[in-house]
Design brief:
- It contains six helices and five strands, in the order H-E-H-E-H-E-H-E-H-E-H.
- By secondary structure, it is α/β, with parallel strands linked by helices.
């Protein structure tokens, strides 16, 4: 099980071209106890930032100049290292919710923000992401144990 400590120390990237929205979310997250929050107002940086930092959660505005949230999600998908990418889209347009989920977002938060809803959706998304990471680690450990056991069996047979 994930502890509250694990969730509050998960890495989060806030992406919104409006500095006021970034500031609001950063303050909300810090006030809730999240300790690893980064942000950018430049959507063109997101894929490179994620490749470098491997965020547990990306809060992504959909309407941005230069590159919208849908294009950002496409760029993130090109990085095959992440099998489970946790993205929550931020949108004021109800029509975009379904399209965003179909494009790979795990959830959405409506603008204007309902702070309790924001906190709950972020917490839930991080809980799922961290469980997925744990499962991935267990799978790797199990695979290594099987390989070691197979090697020992082969070695014993050859004696």
């Amino acid at each position: 099980m994930n502890t509250e400590f694990d969730i509050l120390h998960a890495t989060i990237l806030v992406v919104d071209d409006q500095p006021v929205n970034v500031q609001l979310l950063e303050q909300l997250l810090a006030g809730t106890g999240y300790t690893q929050v980064s942000s950018t107002t430049n959507p063109l940086e997101v894929a490179a930032l994620h490749a470098k930092h491997r965020y547990d959660l990306i809060l992504l505005d959909l309407k941005m100049p230069g590159m919208d949230g849908f294009q950002v999600m496409e760029a993130l998908k090109e990085d095959k290292q992440d099998k489970y990418l946790s993205v929550i889209v931020l949108t004021a347009e109800p029509a975009h919710k379904l399209r965003a989920l179909q494009a790979g977002a795990k959830d959405f938060i409506s603008k204007p923000f309902d702070l309790i809803e924001v906190k709950t959706r972020i917490h839930n998304a991080l809980e799922v992401r961290l469980l997925y990471k744990k499962l991935e680690n267990y799978s790797k450990l199990l695979e290594m144990a099987v390989q070691q056991s197979t090697a020992e069996t082969d070695e014993a047979r050859s004696r």
